[in-house]
Amino acid sequence: MQLLKDHILKDGIVKPGNILKVDSFLNHQMDITLINEIGKEFKRRFSDCPITKILTIEASGIGIACIAAQYFDVPVIFAKKAQSLNLDGEMYCSKVESFTHKKVYDVILSKKFLGPEDHVLLIDDFLANGCALMGLIEIVKESGAVLEGAGIVIEKGFQNGGQCIRDMGVRLESLAIIDSMTDDSLTFR
């Protein structure tokens, strides 16, 4: 998606440790015009799928998933990274390691929002090592729902997450795949 790549090249900042900072338009401050185009592109790419729910993980994926969901006319559900007093009943639970936070989270989702009748599209902002996506895939499998695919805004193609997900047979659509990153440049696939 050229519009996204242009934003990354113009406003993205490469930090040591293969970190791409896109907080000025994607995951802190959100450029809604761009994210609206991202939502349209996910709908175009998954228009052949009978999506009934979009699933993401808190926090950065929520806004993107919400904008995309309006094009599918389906609800968004998100796995939470912390237990709260508002959560009750039976839960799906999976362990997820965050690449950027270097922390393992128990992600949880109420069983009342996802079941065997659902056809799920996973949406997230980044794919690096694939841990977050693997955790969401585990939740979908446990629920008995059909996993239709995963939509990722930015994939770090030089890390193994995308290949692992594809090797599992999951349909993975990444809007921008970065082949390499150095302190002063990046290249796209």
UniProtKB/TrEMBL annotation:
- Tell me which UniProt keywords the record has, alphabetically: Cytoplasm, Glycosyltransferase, Purine salvage, Transferase
Matching InterPro entries: PRTase-like, PRTase_dom, Pur/Pyrimidine_PRTase, Xanthine_PRibTrfase
Top EC group: transferase
Task: Name the residues that bind 5-phospho-alpha-D-ribose 1-diphosphate.
Answer: 128-132
Catalytic activity reported: XMP + diphosphate = xanthine + 5-phospho-alpha-D-ribose 1-diphosphate
Where in the cell?
A: Cytoplasm
Residues annotated as binding xanthine are: 20, 27, 156
Pathway terms, separated by semicolons: Purine metabolism; XMP biosynthesis via salvage pathway; XMP from xanthine: step 1/1
Q: A single GO molecular function, which one?
A: xanthine phosphoribosyltransferase activity
What Enzyme Commission number(s) appear in the record? 2.4.2.22
Q: Spell out the subunit comment.
A: Homodimer.
The record describes the protein's role as:
Converts the preformed base xanthine, a product of nucleic acid breakdown, to xanthosine 5'-monophosphate (XMP), so it can be reused for RNA or DNA synthesis.
The entry sums up its family as follows: Belongs to the purine/pyrimidine phosphoribosyltransferase family. Xpt subfamily.
Q: What is this protein called?
A: Xanthine phosphoribosyltransferase
Gene name of the record? xpt
